[in-house]
């Protein structure tokens, strides 16, 4: 068992199957020693667990979990192009989009759902730059979307 597989097992986390794109794009691409993921929604077995805006139809606490799910989907996309998450040497950048009504300002707390699990999985290599962005609507009325830039060896 690889180091990351052992760490995931210790955390009780499994990386899901790669989510099928909902439009004309691929889940991830590499360029040099970087992997860029497409925006990943919080699909669980092919379905969104909730829809709507965070702070209206979706609670901020639930959205933290959806950000965590979406980043695991992003890791699945990355793994599909680099073969093993053990090749990840650094989480470079995380962008979390949060569907939000006017006046909602809790995007950073929602984005912590993605950031925290990356730190748990990768340790120091999981420390990253991040943007937490409020948007009017996301594809399929998803509450969150996450994309990653990872460095790999």
Radius of gyration: 15 Å
Find the structural class using helix and strand composition: alpha+beta
Oligomer: single chain
Q: Mind summarizing the main beta sheet?
A: 5 strands, mixed
* Element string (H = helix, E = strand): HEEHEHEE
Helix content bin: 25-40%
Mean pLDDT: 97
What is the helix tally? 3
Let me know the number of strands. Answer: 5
Shape: globular
Give your account of this protein's structure.
The chain has about 150 residues and is of the alpha+beta class. The protein is built from 3 helices and 5 strands; from the N terminus they run H-E-E-H-E-H-E-E. The chain has a 5-stranded mixed beta sheet, covered by helices on one side. Helix 3 (about 105-120) links the parallel strand 3 and strand 4 (about 130-135). Helix 2 (about 60-80) packs across helix 3. The chain starts with a helix and ends with a strand. The mean pLDDT is about 95.
Task: Briefly characterize the structure.
The protein has helices at 3-11, 60-82, 107-122, and strands at residues 28-31, 34-37, 88-99, 129-135, 144-152.
